[in-house]
Design brief:
Blueprint: E1 9-12, H1 16-27, E2 32-36, H2 47-59, E3 72-76, E4 89-92, H3 98-111, E5 117-120, H4 127-130, H5 136-140, E6 142-147, E7 156-161, H6 167-180, E8 184-187, H7 196-214, H8 218-224, H9 235-243, H10 245-256, H11 265-268, H12 273-280, E9 293-297, E10 302-307, E11 314-316, H13 323-328, H14 332-337, H15 341-359, H16 368-379, H17 385-392, H18 394-403, H19 410-415, E12 421-424, E13 427-431, E14 437-439, H20 449-455, E15 460-461, E16 465-469, E17 474-479, H21 488-502, E18 510-513, E19 519-521, H22 535-556, E20 562-564, E21 568-571, H23 573-580, E22 583-587, E23 590-593, H24 607-618, H25 625-636, H26 644-649, E24 658-660, H27 666-678, E25 688-689, H28 694-709, H29 715-729, E26 739-740, H30 741-756, H31 759-771
Parallel strand pairs: 1-2, 1-4, 2-3, 4-5, 5-6, 7-8, 17-18, 18-20, 19-21, 20-22, 21-23, 22-24
Antiparallel strand pairs: 6-7, 9-10, 10-11, 12-13, 13-14, 15-16, 16-17, 25-26
Helix pairs in contact: 1-2, 7-15, 7-16, 8-9, 15-17, 21-22, 22-30, 24-25, 25-29, 28-29, 29-30
Length: about 775
């Protein structure tokens, strides 16, 4: 169990970043004080911090649970400065002005307790400038901790320490950010813009210039620097809109004030009249009147418009991939060799960005791993710059640079006949600045399935899933289909895995469900067997439902423990799987939901029974109506948790289930949880539920009919809701006798198959497959 000397935190500055840093600290269950200045003439002296907190309470997206806001105490720097004498870590997030920061530091230093840590969230000002004129003790306890926006979901923190910064302070902050806040901490050197900011701004500026010069549309540019390169779906211009043109402009000016005269960024920082005009007129992106994209409300619906880079006028946004992207089929080198404007654009931006990245070692970071990690966690790139060079081929990349007469950085020369990463004896190694290979060392408590795969082969495998030995007798079940959907092959391999563990003489102790992606599973594969068009497909669907129930039942009552370790989306059948496991250890950013009503169905793999069982435990007052009504409310609305913490409220997770803040620690935590359960493990007792029967069903029927009469529900909405109510009320059974778990499964199957026959359900499934959106009918 991790313990930290940091118990209380203060954030100075309640702007967007300061307030959201405070919010994320509260997400970790840590009390935080939010202080700001007292505006002249203000009657409410805490108005800035209080207003910031009120805005966050109204939006709530920054909080993993609504109650977290209670952990933030607003105040001001005049009346409440003395509070800092009780604080362990003080985070400064005021304006990016060196003099303002200096004045605040002097105020902090006068009242803080001895040994308390002070850090700045600056993104551009070097540490040496920040500590100018401060006391030696202040410099001893000071560092930079650069959070990325938004702090809740962006996992990167760049940490920069000074020559005199206390090593214990560095360790305390690093460990706290890692274990408690769930961040990936990357050490940066005392260089302008640190790592990700510097390289990210270079990349965006380079992309904007090239798109202008080559006459590309913003959609074409975003089609290149989006999914094809493993970058966020916003694309390049969409990301600029998200960050804000004004903020990028300010960051560029700050960089230019600190970069050397020969830095490559100066050459690509070309002023554009259109960009200046957009900023001056308030077209700064999503937070402004619009940016490179804007959404216009119409009489019916909305339309997305894109900015024409030639005319500066908005037009309806065009969808579709350019031909050269389609032809490349994911091959990065083929895309960069294409002779059209798309290929030239891809090569120009990639080559300049990757060369610039190579120049940052060891200027900004000690090694390539730090730079790759910073771009993955700070900009959500799937592959870091040096991983991208490896995908292109280092020799090919350097050869093309030489053919164009470009300067090749020393690091690239040392890698020319090699690769930046290689696997040696089942361990991944990276190329150092000296041209040698060193192993990548994980921190204690970090276990990645990707590392397991380098050193082993699956214990079991088929087309839809794989099973890995993760050590200490624990097996890991990984989904491998598109979007990690569950199908008959997934279920078959799970039954085989259960039999293997139970009949292997104690070699294996239990099973963890986990994968390295941020999509645990989108649920059952709608394309395989759930579209009923005739008697044959009806029989296939019924078999899938039976197999799912049988498999999950076998898992739930197995003689060994199982732990689900979801991260990201866990929908439908994946949510049901999690509820059938002995326990769950979920990543904090996990979004669970029973979504079946959206495709015109009811949960069919035991979800109704498990939700009822939990509801009767949670509302155990002897009242049989409340648990049924609460369960109906959650499933009928397909309510999705906005975090693992909220999933407890919705009963998708138990109060006793664990939550991991750091994504990289999830598999290790799940494995440890399972090992703790192994000794004296006993399977659960089958459910017996006192359901209300037809009397309560009549209440639901009347309520649903009133919804339809008021226009709150359409025809099939009502049909599905009544089917759900029939299951939850146990309508076929006497309210005088408890309904067994097996009987509940029978009810689920009966109502599921009735709905499966209906054309309205088929229409919903088709629409979901075609658009990814639910259909109301």
């Amino acid at each position: 169990m991790f313990t930290s000397p940091i118990k209380r935190i203060a954030v100075i500055g309640s702007g967007v970043m300061g307030s959201q840093i405070a919010a994320h600290i509260s997400n970790a269950g840590v009390p935080v004080v939010l202080l700001d200045i007292v505006p002249k003439g203000a009657q409410d002296r805490d108005v800035l911090a209080s207003t910031a907190l009120a805005k966050m309470r109204k939006d709530m997206s920054v909080f993993m649970h609504p109650d977290n806001a209670k952990l933030i105490t607003p105040g001001n720097l005049e009346d409440d400065l003395g509070i800092l004498s009780e604080i362990d870590w003080i985070i400064e997030a005021v304006l990016e002005d060196q003099q303002i920061k200096s004045d605040v530091y002097k105020e902090i230093d006068a009242v803080r307790k001895a040994g308390s840590i002070v850090s700045s969230n600056t993104s551009t000002i070097p540490l040496a400038r920040l500590i100018q004129g401060q006391s030696e003790k202040f410099a001893h306890d000071f560092m930079i901790t650069h959070f990325y926006n938004p702090p809740r979901t962006m996992r990167l923190i760049e940490l920069m320490a000074g020559e005199t910064t206390c090593p214990d302070a560095i360790k305390s902050v690093t460990d706290f950010c890692d274990h408690v806040l769930g961040k990936g901490v990357v050490r940066s050197k005392a260089a302008p813009g640190f790592i990700a900011n510097r390289l990210g701004i270079f990349f965006l500026q380079c992309g904007m210039n090239s798109a202008f010069d080559l006459g590309l549309t913003v959609e074409e540019a975003d089609a290149v620097f989006g999914k094809p390169l493993g970058m966020p779906k916003t694309g390049m211009f969409g990301l600029i809109d998200l960050i804000g043109l004004d903020l990028i402009s300010l960051s560029a000016k700050s960089l230019l004030s600190t970069l050397s005269e020969d830095d490559a960024y100066r050459a690509i920082n070309i002023p554009r009249a259109l960009i200046d005009k957009m900023i001056s007129e308030g077209y700064t992106g999503r937070k402004g009147k619009g940016g490179f994209y804007r959404v216009q409300k119409m009489e019916v619906g909305k339309v997305t418009e894109a900015l024409d880079l030639k005319t500066g006028k908005y037009r309806v946004s065009k969808e579709g991939k350019p031909k050269s992207i389609e032809e490349a089929k994911g091959n990065l080198r083929v895309l960069c060799e294409a002779q059209d404007s798309i290929g030239k654009f891809a090569w120009f931006v990639l080559s300049h960005t990757l060369v610039y990245a190579a120049s940052l070692v060891p200027q900004s970071a000690d090694d390539i791993v730090a730079i790759d990690t910073a771009m993955r966690l700070g900009f959500n790139w799937e592959f870091g710059p040096f991983e991208l060079i490896d995908k292109l081929g280092v020799g090919w990349f350097v050869g093309k640079l030489k053919a164009e007469g470009r300067v090749v950085p020393e690091l690239l020369k040392k890698a020319e006949d090699k690769s930046f990463y290689k696997v040696e004896n089942g361990k991944q190694e990276f190329l150092t600045a000296e041209g040698k290979y060193n192993p990548i060392v994980r921190s204690e408590g970090i276990l990645l399935l990707a590392d397991i795969k380098l050193a082993s082969t699956p214990v079991l495998k088929n087309a839809s899933a794989s099973v890995w030995d993760v050590g200490d007798g624990v097996l890991c079940f990984e989904f491998t289909t598109k979007m990690n959907t569950l199908d008959v092959d997934t279920l078959a391999l799970l039954r085989e895995t259960i039999a293997l563990i139970e009949n292997n003489g104690g070699k294996y102790k239990g099973l963890v469900f986990y994968n390295d992606s941020n999509l645990f599973s989108a649920g059952a594969n709608l394309r395989k067997g759930l579209q009923v068009t005739d008697d044959a497909s009806y029989a296939v669907t019924r078999q899938i439902i039976r197999q799912g129930q049988k498999t999950y039942h076998a898992l739930r009552f197995a003689r060994f423990p199982s732990v689900s370790a979801p991260a990201g989306l866990a929908l439908g059948g994946a949510c049901e799987l999690t509820m059938h496991c002995s326990a769950a250890q979920a990543y904090a950013e996990t979004y669970l939901s029973l979504v079946e009503v959206l495709i015109g169905e009811v949960p069919g793999w035991g979800g109704c029974a498990q939700m009822l069982g939990r509801a009767f435990q949670k509302y155990s007052s002897g009242d049989t109506l409340t648990p049924v009504r609460k369960t109906f409310e959650i499933i009928s609305q397909a309510r999705r948790s906005r975090s693992a913490f909220e999933a407890r409220d919705l009963m998708y997770l138990r109060e006793t289930d664990g939550i991991t803040m750091n994504r990289d620690r999830l598999l290790f935590d799940a494995k440890q949880r399972l090992l703790q359960m192994v000794k004296d493990y006993e399977p659960p007792l089958p459910l017996k539920l006192n359901l209300p029967g037809s009397t309560e069903y009549a209440f639901f029927e009347s309520m649903i009919d009133s919804w339809r009469a008021l226009g709150k529900a359409l025809s099939h909405d009502a049909t599905v809701a009544k089917a759900l109510a029939a299951v939850l009320c146990g309508i076929r059974f006497s309210p005088r006798r408890p309904v067994t778990e097996a009987q509940m499964l029978g009810l689920e199957q009966r109502e599921f198959m009735k709905l499966a026959r209906m054309p309205q359900t088929a229409a919903r499934i088709r629409y979901m497959l075609e658009t990814g959106q639910p259909l109301r009918n």
